[in-house]
Each structure stands twice: as C-alpha cells, then as structure tokens.
Amino acid sequence: FPAGTRQNKEGGMQLIQKYLENYYGFKKDGESFIWKSDSPMTQKIKEMQEFFGLEVTGKLDSGTLDLIEKRRCGFPDVAG
Amino acid sequence: FSTFAGDPKWAKQVLTYRILNYTPDLHPADVNAAIKKALSVWSSVTPLKFIKKDRGDADIMISFAAKGHNDFIPFDGPGGSVAHAYAPGKEFGGDAHFDEDETWTKSTEGTNLFYVAAHEFGHSLGLFHSKDPNALMYPIYRKFDPSVSPLHQDDINGIQYLYGQSSSTHNDQMESTEIKDPSESKDPALPNTCGPNLTFDAVTTFRGEIMFFKDKHFWRKYPAVKTADFNLITSFWPRLPPGVDATYEIPENDETVIFKGNEFWVVRGDTILPGYPQKIYTLGLSKDITKIDAAFYNANEGKTYYFIADKFWRYDKRSHTMDRNPMLVRDAFPGINGKIDAVFQYQNFFYFFCGRKQFEFDPDKKRVTRLLKTNFWFQC
C-alpha cells in the first residue's frame, strides 16, 4: 500500500480493535487476521455492524470507521 | 430496548442521589439542574422518585473524573467514551461517572450534560443499550436537540418493563421528586401529617434520615430537607408486614431492627437480612412478652432499650447481657409516664412519643427539656 494508506489502515485497525475490546467483549488472541472471514475480529465487526444497523460486511468500511469515531456512552453494547 | 442480564432493578421507588464533585465547565447550579432534570425524565414515566443528598451514602453517586478513576473502565480523553454508569446494585451499582476531559455544556455545543446524564441514568435504573437509533439509550451521542424530549417510546417501553407506569400525571412528576403532603391525597385512610391528632407506631433514625411509621406507611425525613417523603412500608421492604410496633437503628452496623408482634426483622437499606423474622425472646426477653411498644439504641452507651407498657429492659451490647428485671420508665426518665408509642435518639436527645405528645428528653440532665407536637419534624 502507499505509505499514507497503510498508516490509515493501521490506525483504523487499532481503532476498531480498541472499540471492539471496549464495547463488544473482543479479546485479541495472538494474530487476529481481520481479512479472514471467520476470524474473531471479523465476527465482532459483523456483530457491531448488525447492532448499529450498518451493512454487515465484516470489513472496515467507511461507514464503520465513521461510527467508531463518534462520541458515545462508555458502557458496552453487549453484556460482558 | 434491552436490560442487563437478570433484569437488575431497584426494589424501592424512592431513590437517593448525590453529586460528589462538580465539573469546572459549568456553574454548580447548572450541574444540579441538569442532573435533576435528567432524573425527572425517568420519574415522569415511572413511579420512581429521586431525592438529592448532600452527604453520606446514596443509591446513585455522581462524579466527574478523567482517565483512570478507581473503577475498571478508565476514560479515554476528549471524544470517544463520554460517560458510563452501572446497573442497579450495592456499592458502585447505580453510580454514574462523567469524563472530565469532555467539555460539558448546557447548550447544543460541546457535550450536553443533561442529555448524557439522562442516558446514563437509564443504565443506573437497569436499562442496557438500545438498537433504536432514535432511542435515548442508543449508545452513540447525537447532537442535543432541546426542543424534543429525549425519551422515545422504546425507552419508555424499557423503563416501564422494569418499574411499571407513573402513578400520576406527567407534570406532577416533572415538578417535584418529593411526594405532596399526604393530607392532600384522596385516600381518606392516609394520615394527615399536620393534623393535631397525629400519632406514630414507631420512629427511628435510618442512615442519616428519620423514619416515622404509621399504619402501613412511613415518612422519610432528611433533617436538612423541609418536606418528607411518604411511602408504603411494603414498597421499601416487600416482605415486611404492613405495619410495625417498634424499630431502632444500630448505625455502626448499618442495621435497622423492625418489630411486629412477637417477631423482628433486621434490614440493611432496603434488604432484609437472611434468617429473619426471628422471635423476640431470642433477644433475651421473657417468652411471655408478645409485643414491644417502642425501642431505641443508645449509641453513647451501647445499650438498646425495649419499652413495654410502663417498663423497659436494656440490652448491653458490650457485656451481651439483658436486664434480668425491668425498670419503671418514670424512674429512669422523669416526666415520661405511661405507655410509649415510639422513641428515637437524635443527636444527644431522646424523643418519646406518647399519644399526641412528643417529649424531648436530655439524658445528661435527666429531664424533659421540651414538650413538642408529634408533627414537630414536618413542615407544618
């Protein structure tokens, strides 16, 4: 990837991982490969997209990135 | 809407809240107003009432803090997470924390405190997040619109699933958290707080308040607050009989003992401790005593006084002994004669209720210092 895109992608990855840890009970186990359709991270992204009524792609698309940058309640969206 | 696992909710309808500290972003009076208004959002659609406390414990403790703040969920600086709150329960159950790294406002700019607090108090009362993007309990903060009520039907469905509907019209609830004086209420059976014939069944201190029991109701009075709140005993302790004979508090144990007939219960807050009721003879009183008229715990002596007719027995907490023989009330408390309806200790005085009279007794001077009306403690 061109450097800028790569950095954005890594930033988005960190954001989404933190978000899923805080609000969706995601636990990072070793290498979570986001692009594998059955990876835990992908599953959690789908769970979050479903909660917010977004298109459930499991991918870090712009709609998902926009949402995780909004201010919100600090309490999880799924029971821990 | 959704609720927390197991549907935790408050077992009582009158809840207390306390603002532990204030954000420098707003004038304290604006914080007080925003918090009170946020609570009235929920009391307007349920039977719940909220009373503000300025000291001691409260069900909902409200505080502002940045980053780590002694719970397991540190805040994350400006943006991101703006506040969080805990489901109903002990300790920090019900508490609401607001991120001091936000810019708290009472307008549509920045982060509107009223709007966020109304959401967080939804958690404090037992609601989880909602998927309805229009609901107050939706997790994402949306720009505050003061022209519309923050509650949507989804929120109302959720909170009424937990607490039922409001027992009175909307504006009554929005106006005040204290109940109007019961003498104005329609039910003739309700006692008239300010009537000249008011008598009590029992009176006790209770976590900094004073509770006055009459038939199946009780008044809760904060000495610093003018009005008293009026509740059904069973709304607070569902398993207690509707009416008590005597009651006293042991503050150092955070326990209150409640007597009815030849049984007694021990409660901590709104929870009846396990193993109760027990028979009153287990306290060391003789088995032929079938009821207690009044009782109080003298914290200065560590002794509990049990009054029956014109006599009393004392239990000494330190030596764990009960008086073998009773003493006459008039001998130990000159000026107090005959049967006592209720008695409690407040600061360094004892207050005896005998029919429509109340006697303030100074144990140091061993004499009655004031003759008061029974409704002396209410704003009449």
- Unreliable runs of chain B, pLDDT <50, ≥5 residues? 169-188
Q: What is the general shape of chain B?
A: elongated
Number of helices of chain B: 6
| Side-by-side strand order of the widest sheet of chain B | 2-1-3-5-4
Explain the overall architecture.
The complex is a heterodimer of chains A (80) and B (380). Chain A is mainly alpha-helical. Chain A is 50% helix and 2% strand. Chain A is built from three helices and one strand. Chain A has helices at residues 3-23, 40-51, 62-68; one strand at 72-73. Chain A is globular. The termini of chain A are far apart. The mean pLDDT of chain A is 81. Mean pLDDT of chain B is 88; it is low at 169-188. In chain B, α1 (28-43) crosses α2 (113-125). Chain B has 380 residues and is an alpha+beta fold. Chain B has helices spanning 28-43, 113-125, 153-163, 170-175, 233-236, 329-332, and strands at 14-19, 49-52, 60-65, 81-85, 96-99, 104-105, 111-112, 202-206, 209-214, 217-221, 228-232, 246-250, 255-260, 263-268, 271-272, 278-279, 294-298, 303-308, 311-316, 321-322, 327-328, 342-346, 349-354, 357-362, 367-373. Helices cover 14% and strands 31% of the residues of chain B. Chain B starts with 13 loop residues before the first strand and ends in a 7-residue tail after the last strand. In chain B, β24 and β25 (367-373) form a beta hairpin. In chain B, the strands form six sheets. Chain B has a five-stranded mixed β-sheet with strand order 2-1-3-5-4, with helices on one face. In chain B, strands 12, 13, 14, 15 and 16 form a five-stranded antiparallel β-sheet that branches. In chain B, strands 17, 18, 19, 20 and 21 form a five-stranded antiparallel β-sheet that branches. Classes of the chains: A mainly alpha (80), B alpha+beta (380). β1 (72-73) of chain A pairs parallel with β4 (81-85) of chain B, so a sheet runs across the interface.
